[in-house]
Specification:
Distance between the termini: 45 Å
Shape: globular
Structural class: mainly alpha
Strand content: under 5%
Largest sheet: none
Number of domains: 1
Order of helices and strands: HHHHHHHHHHHHH
Helix content: 55-70%
Radius of gyration: 22 Å
Number of strands: 0
């Protein structure tokens, strides 16, 4: 009889490792770290999360932050959705943990870029977030294989991902240049809004790239990245005069690329599920047998 594994007895928490006491202890530690990482971000999430919807209706002086408010909410979604996915079943989805680490790192950089937020929060939460993220990466199963593609890279999906990364880098550079040119008293600069948008664009592209590279667990980061990019495209079309809004061509471009990335990824996943995988390389035919050889 095969030895029971953590994958069969604990919902895939430790992949295919034997369900030993050490494996169970590691699974418990992983649960604690995921929950602690989520709780550590509750204060900003309670404030920023509702902005995903409420920022659409802001009026008066605060209306200048309308689009930036939307993406405070997007950041909360990009953090908590993968955390919940890891809490449900962390294996075999190490790419999700890598994406969480990227989102947390982006949040830390955003706080460091804002004297107002840093003075209000202090360095303590940043240290806690960093330690918990390192612990998450150390405990999540399958991290060593996180950057090994599950199948042959698809040139179409790879091209879509590359185009998305290029757009994200250009957008991040543009937002960073604006941030560097404005004074420290600019209201967007004080709250690191330019940094927020630059980092969110890069996170969206990173999520799509994880999926385009066919990495284990890449589906969720790809969907989140595509939806964040599409949300920016829609918001830019609806509020073209807002700070950080994309020009018309870029807004339409990210909408097309986001939809194309999701559709192509799901087509490949559907084909793989039906057994329509990439055919193996042809094998050389054996030569004729030589008598007496």
């Amino acid at each position: 009889m095969n030895e029971p594994t953590a994958g069969t007895r604990f919902g895939g928490w430790l992949g295919d490792r034997p369900a030993s006491k050490g494996a169970v202890a590691r699974a418990v530690a992983l649960v604690v770290v995921i929950v602690a990482l989520g709780l550590a971000h509750v204060p900003p999430a309670l404030f920023q999360g509702p902005m995903l919807v409420t920022a659409w209706t802001v009026e008066g002086p605060e209306a200048i932050h309308q689009l930036h408010g939307l993406f405070n909410g997007v950041w909360v979604v990009m953090l908590y959705v993968p955390l919940l996915a890891l809490l449900y079943r962390p294996a075999p989805r190490p790419a999700v943990a890598v994406f969480v680490a990227a989102v947390v790192a982006a949040g830390v950089l955003r706080v460091l870029a804002s004297p107002v937020i840093l003075a209000d929060a202090g360095p303590g939460p940043l240290v806690v977030a960093g330690v918990l993220t390192i612990a998450l990466l150390a405990l999540v199963p399958g991290l060593r294989g996180a950057f090994r593609p599950m199948g042959r890279l698809d040139p179409i999906l790879g091209g879509i991902g590359s185009a998305g990364v290029l757009l994200a880098v250009l957008y991040a550079v543009q937002q960073s240049v604006i941030w560097l040119q404005l004074s420290a008293t600019d209201p967007h600069t004080q709250l690191a809004h330019w940094t927020l948008m630059a980092l969110t664009g890069l996170l969206a592209a990173f999520g799509v790239a994880l999926g385009a590279a066919r990495l284990p667990g890449g589906r969720l980061p790809l969907w989140l990245g595509a939806m964040a990019a599409a949300y920016l495209g829609v918001a830019s079309l609806v509020m073209p005069g807002q700070a950080s809004a994309l020009p018309l061509w870029a807004a339409l471009g990210v909408l097309v690329l986001s939809a194309a990335a999701v559709v192509r990824f799901e087509m490949l996943a559907f084909g793989a599920a039906r057994g329509v995988a990439t055919p193996p390389a042809p094998q050389p035919r054996p030569g004729p047998a030589v008598a007496g050889g």
